[in-house]
């Protein structure tokens, strides 16, 4: 192994089957391959991820993913130092498909096996892409996750707050659905919002009156639904302008809440005087221009570096799992117990679990 570590990563906790090979050599990370087989079309008729369909599709495709990842990386099993696999949190059938596959390869080759928390994969990505030093602040915002974490070490995270109900991506998807826009809703709502007037409906900014960094998006979702119903009741339908204004108002409310809660999270993080202060984002919602620009402005104001990894590495992928495996191997933190598939697995076990489980499975 020496100066170079090469790891095969597997991810199957939600609706993407993925395998990747990542190599750390002379202090530099290189993604040799990253293969993703998505399941969007399989779940589309049901309006959300169906766990049984997901589990079966993962079991069917995971071997193919591994084969492709090794071949694209021009690497065989003998060239690997270990296998890293998502062992939670997520939909249990999918997680099991990945863990069983990884166990099989490990049994056949004798390679060490490392169980990775999916959220740790997201949270450690900015170290692979931008070489961030510990500790940094992380905002995970996707269809399944929403939380603030201080990333202190590859196996140490401190959760400052998170959503108490929906994840913001879920809310974007729901708003798109009630306004007749395509899925996934985020990009469609963002495009509409560009043409709309954000302050016409005066939507609420949930939980801003409560101290701390917890967030809530379900009331905002309901407020948009009520506003749409009121327009329909008044005019018999909604015009393109109504739709754009609803989207703009909703997006502005989400951005305001994320920025204000990020400001508070930054305050708490900065109070310990980190050496190289940084805020990193991950998750599909981080693709949103308005949200990204507003967070970047906030960081600029506070003299904090803002890092947003390329979108393909912000959303679910296996390179982040392989990288998390490298990080853990480097510090010798490889726990056999981490290989037990866990549908719920908070990164910061000292904090009470986040309530709720979205359409994409458990949030932590
Ligand atoms: O991280 P991700 O690919 O998957 C998981 O949730 O695991 O995130 C997908 C979510 C979807 O809910 C999608 O609507 C949202 O990210 N999203 C966006 C944008 N692009 C994707 N939300 C707001 N604005 C966008 N441009
Ligand atoms: Zn994820």
Account of the protein in words:
This protein is of the alpha/beta class. The chain folds into two domains: 5-131 and 315-345, 2-Layer Sandwich (Nucleotidyltransferase, domain 5); 136-311, Nucleotidyltransferase, domain 5. It is 43% helix and 20% strand. It has helices at residues 40-43, 51-72, 92-109, 118-130, 168-178, 185-193, 218-235, 240-270, 289-302, 311-314, 319-330; strands at residues 4-11, 16-25, 28-38, 82-88, 113-117, 136-141, 146-153, 156-162, 278-282, 305-307, 357-358, 361-362. The strands form three sheets. It has a five-stranded mixed sheet, with helices on both faces. β11 and β12 (361-362) form a beta hairpin. α5 runs antiparallel to α8 (240-270) and α7 (218-235) runs antiparallel to α8 (240-270). The longest helix is centred in the last third of the chain and has 31 residues, at 240-270. The model has no long low-confidence stretch (mean pLDDT 92). It binds 5'-O-[(R)-(carboxyoxy)(hydroxy)phosphoryl]adenosine and zinc ion.
The CATH topology of the largest domain is Nucleotidyltransferase, domain 5
The portion of residues assigned to helices is 40-55%
Which value, in Å, is the CA radius of gyration?
A: 21 Å
CATH architecture assignment of the largest domain = 2-Layer Sandwich
Q: Main sheet? A: 5 strands, mixed
Termini gap: 33 Å
Helix-strand layout with pairing:
Elements: E1 4-11, E2 16-25, E3 28-38, H1 40-43, H2 51-72, E4 82-88, H3 92-109, E5 113-117, H4 118-130, E6 136-141, E7 146-153, E8 156-162, H5 168-178, H6 185-193, H7 218-235, H8 240-270, E9 278-282, H9 289-302, E10 305-307, H10 311-314, H11 319-330, E11 357-358, E12 361-362
Parallel strand pairs: 1-4, 4-5, 6-9, 9-10
Antiparallel strand pairs: 1-2, 2-3, 6-7, 7-8, 11-12
The structure holds 5'-O-[(R)-(carboxyoxy)(hydroxy)phosphoryl]adenosine (KG4) and zinc ion.
Residues 14, 142-144, 169-170, 172-173, 184-187, 190, 283-285, 287-288, 315-316, 360 line the site of 5'-O-[(R)-(carboxyoxy)(hydroxy)phosphoryl]adenosine.
